[in-house]
Design brief:
The protein is mainly β. It has no helices and seven strands. The strands form three sheets. It has a three-stranded antiparallel beta sheet with strand order 4-1-7, with no helix packed on it. The protein has a two-stranded antiparallel sheet with strand order 2-6. It has a two-stranded antiparallel ribbon with strand order 3-5. The two termini are 13 Å apart.
């Protein structure tokens, strides 16, 4: 059971790619949280949260994802 998701950005925004914004959906799409990601930044969030990466317009966006597993939330 996935409990935590960690995403680390490996590319430099605006230098290696444009677009590709990471969004966490707090309640609805209109109120998405958009963290200011820079190369090397790690975002951690509960795995059940809805999230997405918007389309990349130019270049290549690289990231790594780690999942932390554990017993079910009570």
């Amino acid at each position: 059971m996935r409990k935590l998701t960690l995403v680390m950005l490996l590319s430099d925004p605006q230098i290696e790619f444009t677009g590709g914004e990471f969004e966490l959906n707090s309640e609805c799409e209109d109120h998405a949280l958009v963290p200011d990601l820079k190369k090397g930044t790690i975002v951690a969030f509960p795995s059940f949260m809805i999230h997405r990466v918007k389309p990349v317009h130019l270049g290549i966006r690289k990231s790594i994802v780690i999942w932390v597993e554990g017993p079910r939330f009570i």
